[in-house]
Structures
1.
Amino acid sequence: MRALIYDDDEDLAEECAEALALRGHEVRTRRGETDFPALIAAFAPDLILLDVHMPEFNGIEALLVLAEAPRKTAISVIMMSGARDGLLDAGLSLGRAHGIRLLGTLDKPFAFGDLDRLLAKLPQEVPLPSGR
């Protein structure tokens, strides 16, 4: 399974990348890249760990891009944030309204056991794109 960590906190992104790699995922972090549509097109993730609060391109904008993505039904999303301002709840509502598979949210800082509980909700088989 391919996982993209889209977070502007490079240290946390690398920690998440290591944790997911140990769990058997092929992982990529954004590494300062802000072109979210290009990243999902090039990497074709099955899972996205998505920070909601980022200065250049935030998680709400990313959800709107995913809503139009051809593979949106094949992508699972975990939203995360260190802010306690209700934006995670807004993101959940937006994602559900657009048919995005949201596994849940993580309040930063989080324990990797919390991440594991959300990863347990991943589909056991990654669906093939339609037409195959």
2.
Amino acid sequence: MRKVIIWVFIILFAITLQTTMIPYLSIAGVYPDLVVASMMVIALWYGRLAAIWGGFFTGLLLDSWAPNQLGLQSMALISASVFVGLFDHKRINSGPIAQFFLFLLGSVVHDLVIFMAVGNYGTSLITFILGQVIPRALFTAMFGMAIVFMGHQVHPYGRR
């Protein structure tokens, strides 16, 4: 029960920051996705099952703002989180560089799932990847690593 409360707190805090503060941090129109970063942190700390349930309910919460695409965020968050959850701390003791690349690839997976489901944003796939996906993935990975660092400062050696 304690883990679920932590998950809910992390996700609600990320959604709150995503909607209030993050738009002010945009660089050249690109901003990080804290919800994706938070879901990948949960996947890394708690594994795939937590990623599946957390991604599903978080995605439905996000999709409540855009009901015409109900399930899209759930599908994208589950895909990215399960990918990162394959390399959780129980299976692989990944260092900070590996975690950064996991966050990077997880963010790319999330954005590509949304691109494939929604369709064309008026640009080609290559232009979308180079102009939006890669910069957002780098920005999201940096914020994900900051969340991991803060988590290690609060709870350095114990199980999460």
3.
Amino acid sequence: MKKVLKTISIAFVALVVLGATPKWAESLTGPQKNAVRSAKQYLSMMGFSRGGLIQQLSSDAGDGYRVTDATVAVDSLNIDWNKQAIRSAKQYLSMMGFSCKGLIQQLSSSAGDKYTVSQATYGARQAGACE
């Protein structure tokens, strides 16, 4: 992780020194850039839905960013939410058994992971919980 962060930092510094700034970095505010960094750290650890990641970043129990900053940060990233749903489904199945329907409900619940039903269904199927 440190090696990856160091490589990214070096590349970013090189771009700035050469006068080229990534497109997303030009338009994001300081808090939004920080929220992007936080989002990437969370995504490196586990699967998140768009709504779940925004909640994690904006929650008082999470990072405490403003919802608007968290939303802009998450939307500035190129995230495959179906892949995240598979990742989350596999994480659940590694901890306990779930029926196909139960896993889809957990993944798509507003009190759970907040994936869309389509993403949750895809994740559960790809993770092997459904026939």
4.
Amino acid sequence: MPHFYNANELQFSPDYASAAADMTQIGDSLADCAIGTSVRVLAVDWDQLDPAEGRRLRALGLDAGAVLRLAHRGIFVGRDPIAIEIGRMMIALRRAHAQAVSVEPAPEEAPHRAAEQSNNPPLDRKTGFST
């Protein structure tokens, strides 16, 4: 008889998360990380993304220096979408967007947004464009 899991049974142990962090190498893409892994964003290849999508990701705090945790993968072909935690937020990314994000392991840090001192110009709240 098959066993059905509830959400509480699918929590990952710290041992699993640390083992997954050991598998993540510096410069890997976010799309290649294991579930439960905490990673720090090294760089985002903004040229791979549509400008509007890039603005949305920056507004959500996905930029160099942010610490993320890969929470879930989709069940469809290509394993889309990917759910990540940034601070107290859970956001969904397409796999193509996650491949544009280079990361390194950050097993000791809790997920948090990128620091406000970014190399990117500030965005106007009304238009979403650089000021």
